[in-house]
Amino acid sequence: MAAVTLSFVQPCGMCFAGRRLRNVIVIEAQRGSWKRMRLSNFFFSQVWKVSYRSKHKFPDNLLERVEKSATARLENQSKLITKVAALMEYDNVDDVFDKKSDEKVKEELELACKRFPAITLGYSPPVELYSKSKSSKETNSILKTPTENSFLPTPMHLGWLDPDSISGTLSSFCPEVLNVDSSNLGEEISDGSSFTVQTLTSEVETTADDSAAQLFLSGTIGSVPGLSKRHSYQLDNCGFHTMRKLLHHFPRTYVDFQNAHLDIEDGQYLIFVGKSPVFQGEFSFLEVIVSCEVTGKDRTPENMSYSADDKGGKTFFLHLKRFFRGARFTWQPFLNSIQEKHRPGDLVCVSGKVKALRAENHFEMKEYNIDVLRDEDESSLQAQERPYPVYPSKGGLTPKFLSDVISRILRVLPANMDPLPKEITTTFGLPSLHDAYTGIHEPKNLDEADLARKRLIFDEFFYLQLARLYQMLQGLGTKLEKDVLLEKFKNPVLNSAYIEDWSHLTKCFLNALPYSLTPSQLSAISEIIWDLKRPIPMNRLLQGDVGCGKTVVAFLACMEVVGSGYQAAFMAPTELLAIQHYEQLRDLLEKMEGVSSKPTIGLLTGSTPTKQSRMIRQDLQSGAISIVIGTHSLIAEKIEYSALRIAVVDEQQRFGVIQRGKFNSKLYGTSIISKTGSSNSDDTSKADLNMAPHVLAMSATPIPRSLALALYGDISLTQITGMPLGRIPVETHIFEGNESGFKEVYSMMLKDLNSGGRVYLVYPVIDQSEQLPQLRAASAELETISKKFPNYSCGLLHGRMKSDDKEEALRKFRSGETQILLSTQVIEIGVDVPDASMMVVMNAERFGIAQLHQLRGRVGRGTRKSKCLLIGSTANSLKRLKMLGKSSDGFYLANIDLLLRGPGDLLGKKQSGHLPEFPVARLEMDGNMLQEAHIAALKVLGDSHDLEKFPALKAELSMRQPLCLLGD
Ligand SMILES: Nc1ncnc2c1ncn2[C@@H]1O[C@H](COP(=O)(O)OP(=O)(O)OP(=O)(O)O)[C@@H](O)[C@H]1O
């Protein structure tokens, strides 16, 4: 079969109309019309015009033939074209396409090309695809010559080009010509200069060098076999700088191919087996047609040889678009290799997404896989029935192109590239890294893809955990310290200090509490005090549902530190909360007995008067203040501490990881500076002086354990699971915000107020907005509510009020002077008014589930039975709100929120911005694996604290985890 090569022709003495007709034929040939059942309308109209204008005798006859050809057999179409050529006074079709060029024709053709963008202009010699003019040996020798050796001269690499191995390995490669993807990649191969394949060798079995293999992923994309310079550049521009980047471009999804059946519908992903190409004559570069016979029964080796007609089936024609892209694909050795690979009548397996063409039983496939089947046995067919990965495109690079490049890399992926010790992969039932990459990109079935994904998720989590733990170990001096730390992570239950071991001050404070601690609080503080006694800075997250009593646990931790002669800083996210904590602590200290000198406390917020704030700073520096409570002001530049040992960060999610880190390092730095030249504490050892303060972070938005681990990795987690005795769960009611809904809400409010309760009314905005008139506003409704409940006084609290006014409003509500508090979400965190018994949330759908749970936590903090009324603006919004009615468990709701909104929304901007990226893992689904990864990381570090025993792992770690991710 000879391929048509398009050149511009200059037949002598041809009339203008004749030239036009000839051009039309050229265009049709370029578009692939030689192989099309239906000639294009363009061709049809041109033939008509030419025939008519040139007053040829045959117009009717010709048009009739053309018309017929629309449904004629393909051979007849070919004949028609030949006939047209003859009428144009050419001896045969080939003469139409001679090699001379003609500027005028060229111009015309260029014009035509503009109208028909599918046409690719170019000059090229005719190519004999199937002339067998070159032997395979010759092909090999040609392939050996252009070498641009860049990476890994491993035998595996080279096996890629071994002509014998090609047939075996190329089954999934498209098009399957010497692994050179002609559809997308090979345009520049024609000049030979940019052909970047490796030297061919037969030593395929030689053992590859381990360390080189492990460095494979960091290899530049210049090492991707057969990649042209232009494509390397494009990939590089889109951020694919290394093999790893490319291999980590994971499929978006997999399509499950079905075997072709009789009732094909547009858009289906199907597998066909058929003969390629159907033409024995010439064919275009742009399109190959494969004829496939579908019998209507399942394809089996037995029925494959039957013709479709025998079984009442159909013959389908698949138009494989962009088979070889354009006329530039003419590098002779390459074409010879095509010739070797594609023999007319070859049995091929084609899979892809079908698009129906106008002609019956004709389908177009733009993205496809085509595999030549060596024989008709079942195994080769079965191999094709695998999930088809669908890739996302990136920066203008098509999914097909990316998948082809990835496919190339997979062909040369060293088997021994896994940095994970075998023991780990075996223990956790994970495939090797090589198998994971192959499994995710070219899975044989969905189970394999799943397993591969598991391994890749494991890696994402594992390296994060490893990095964080590794960094912690690096901060410790002796092997013993490191062992102790690892042991602590392995057996967290062992680590709690009995009350007898607590400082005298802590015990006295405990006795001053008006209640006894719940078992959960007790074990939390025991764990924390155990940590505080270690010469290693603690980094602990104290979690608990709203109102479970975290604050008192944090106070006890501060007492323990102060009891040992150090200072404590307690940072709250809002002034309101700082004041509340301050007052609470002050009251408790007042009641404390049995200590000669009570700890001195200070309050430092943005609103603290300058003079007072200067005094507090001085006292902190001199050590006169032992516990300071405040807001961000505590981490201001000018603050210096005398002997800071613990930093409590309340509602830590409000601060963000970076801020927390700054706080940490700030305290560390200043504590050293401030200690220089002054010794405040008798038992301050030299080592202690240089120790960073312990950090106790508290979270009232329960973060699912998985998320916490992912966020902090090294952080120890303490959870308060129970609620103080006597708490009655808050009843939650959902209402639609219509007239009847409000009527009911107001009547419930009145009932509660009449029985001595206090009501929070929470609004999404302060003032009414013209843009969002449906939102109820706190200020705007003050008057309405006051009128509605004339026997009760109302207060207003929102973020724009002055600090003193806010404090006053809250004080009045707490004392009972006001019974209704109209507020915005400023009260969401931490506000503690035990007598408040009802919370009404307007436009509740505007808040997240975790946020609503927080708001709900403002009531039910005392012994009164409390209610939370959520008013949704529309009936639609009620569905999500109902979830809150079903559960009062903050952890459960946080998990639901994580599932519904993802970690970003759950954590809020500040925090989610520092969430490490997990390209494969979804925390909400795969969180459990974090725990496994954590255990694995502990195991590895237990074996080798500095990872010296695992050099590959260490190298991989440094590659994966830049320090900015590891801490602040
Ligand atoms: N063991 C206990 N028994 C009874 N009451 C307790 C106990 N522990 C704490 N409380 C009280 O419960 C209320 C809530 O405590 P606290 O403010 O510490 O909770 P929290 O977990 O910090 O809540 P939030 O998440 O809202 O900040 C406070 O009034 C506190 O005095």
Automatic annotation (TrEMBL):
Show where the Helicase ATP-binding domain sits: 531-720
Q: What class of enzyme is it?
A: isomerase
GO molecular function, one example?
hydrolase activity
Specify whether Metal-binding is a keyword of the entry.
no
Q: Which Gene3D superfamilies match?
A: P-loop containing nucleotide triphosphate hydrolases (3.40.50.300)
Q: Which GO terms describe its biological process?
A: DNA repair; mitochondrion DNA recombination
- Gene Ontology annotations for the cellular component aspect, listed alphabetically: chloroplast; mitochondrion
**Is Signal given among the entry's keywords?**
no
User: What UniProt keywords apply to this chain's record, in alphabetical order?
Assistant: ATP-binding, DNA damage, DNA recombination, DNA repair, DNA-binding, Helicase, Hydrolase, Isomerase, Nucleotide-binding
The EC number(s) given in the record are: 5.6.2.4
A Pfam short name: RecG_dom3_C
Superkingdom of this protein's organism: Eukaryota
Catalyses: Couples ATP hydrolysis with the unwinding of duplex DNA by translocating in the 3'-5' direction; ATP + H2O = ADP + phosphate + H(+)
What InterPro entries does the database record attribute to this sequence? Answer: ATP-dep_DNA_helicase_RecG (IPR004609), DEAD/DEAH_box_helicase_dom (IPR011545), Helicase_ATP-bd (IPR014001), Helicase_C-like (IPR001650), NA-bd_OB-fold (IPR012340), P-loop_NTPase (IPR027417), RecG/Mfd (IPR047112), RecG_dom3_C (IPR045562)
Q: Where is the Helicase C-terminal domain?
A: 741-899
Q: Which SMART domains match?
A: DEXDc, HELICc
The Swiss-Prot or TrEMBL record describes its family as follows: Belongs to the helicase family. RecG subfamily.
Q: Which PANTHER family match?
A: ATP-DEPENDENT DNA HELICASE HOMOLOG RECG, CHLOROPLASTIC
**What's the protein here called?**
DNA 3'-5' helicase
